[in-house]
């Protein structure tokens, strides 16, 4: 019995020593998860790539095309006539669509704005400088050395850049259909007495129908960047701490964020969703999160990858505008590389199945 108690005591002491050696939380609650939050005071000289001109889409309109089809129409009905009293007819107009209604697209070009940002390219410095006096009477010049404490101010640089005010879009204009008609003779009074069969008469007409509706092609114009060298505070010193978080927040969690079609611009309802879900977590605890954006498999693979990265960046930029440090945020676009169902390229799926793949997720990172 004494040996058993001694073994249990040694096991408890070993577990406590391991927790202390690893810096893990003391007295953790069963079923709870913790993330490690550490800050350090470090300075570094970095080269920062600044986007001076954003990427955007240009749209090219492909007009609708029409094709001509032929149809056989009845222009005179079959009838009967009699020798003594022939049939009589009356002529009526029969309407048909000579050209179906179509549509055309007009491009509303992207619009841009201007802004600038000032960077500190070298920090302020100070120190002692030694100077030999010009009118020194002594043969030994070291007798006439003056020590001066000199301060040099920091130097800065202002970098202008162009911002995207609104992306290119299209407006749909409906073209009306064109009506036409043909003449048709119908029986007014049938023939009597000796009956003679008169066959029906037909006519071939031509009309134009829509072959391919109007559409647009999207071309992505790459962003332009400029590199700026500056000295920054990389990390602020602090105390190592463990923060308790919900365990499910360590795994990817889908948040109902939506964007404008073929755009990374957040809708007003999506901004409210971010305010209600992500901001409380970041303001309550000093944790870091990763934003992950995904698209469905429709469209060009490279375009989807670029669009998902822009959408993840849009969420991070919005959080930064709300006062969250960018060092606590990470953005990653996966395009169509992590589909949740079978709807890959070439697979026929419903809009609902594709919608399951168009998602934005977040998870808490352990520093």
TrEMBL record:
Record's signal peptide: 1-21
Alphabetical list of PROSITE patterns matching this protein: OMPA_2
Keywords: Cell outer membrane, Membrane, Signal
Domain of life: Bacteria
A Pfam short name: OmpA
Residue ranges constituting the OmpA-like domain according to the UniProt record: 246-367
Subcellular location: Cell outer membrane
UniProt xrefs under InterPro entries: Bact_OuterMem_StrucFunc (IPR050330), OMP_bac (IPR006664), OmpA-like (IPR006665), OmpA-like_sf (IPR036737)
SUPFAM superfamilies found in the cross-reference section: OmpA-like
Protein name from the UniProt record: OmpA family protein
Organism placement in taxonomy: Bacteria, Pseudomonadati, Bacteroidota, Flavobacteriia, Flavobacteriales
